[in-house]
Amino acid sequence: MAGNATPKDEDMAASELQRLLSTMAALRDPVNGCPWDQKQTFATIAPYTVEEAHEVADAIERGDMADLKDELGDLLLQVVYHARMAEEAGLFDFADIARAINEKMIRRHPHVFGDRKPAQPGQWEAIKRAEREAKSEPSLFDGISAGLPALLRSAKLQRRAAKVGFDWPSVAPIIEKLEEELGELKAEIASPAGHEKEKRQFEEFGDLMFVMVNLGLRLGIDAEAALRAANTKFIRRMGAVEAGAKEQGQPLNSLSLEEMQVFWDRAKAAERSGK
Fold it and tell me: Would you say the pTM of this structure is higher than 0.70?
């Protein structure tokens, strides 16, 4: 389906959504429902919700639109699942969720739904800030969920701090800070063993990652996306190492690190030459 939605398209979408809501209600039915679905709670379903969001991002990164359709369906199911459990508890239902996000989008786009004046720089954040203040949320970081993936949350925290001027002025001091944190981690690794060593290494490693996220923000790089890309590259190159071992008729774990490195470097060179 492409272009502007027609009334027929909208009717079909509404019909399929209602069918999905009915399916979930049947799954959760206390008498005739699925035993597994009946016993689920917000807490037990939450990890699946996070996982499905990541699988949507993965499908987009791979450019697999057929898979994206399926993964978006899985993610929509998560919303419907939480909505059904909330309705059963008398908290809210799917219509309340849709109404709330619809009203939020209209409120945050006055240049589309309101006075039609051109959008001003910082308008979105100004409206969000006004919403937080209306909820009596005085803290700088209110609205940034603790449940976000750590890299994403780190980026949001640092962006928020930067908006009030708490940020390095350029790349150079960030690089200096990065080198400082790396030096501190190296020092902890080299320090004598003790009951605090693991804790200190843990903290220094976290500090190093935090600064890396800030460097990514400065360079316009999404740390989460960059790490996903690095993971994909690693899988691809290890695949070449596995293929090399197979060509030699040897199990992968029988190769020395040096032998594996030969296949790794060959894959790396091939990528750079575009082969």
Answer: no
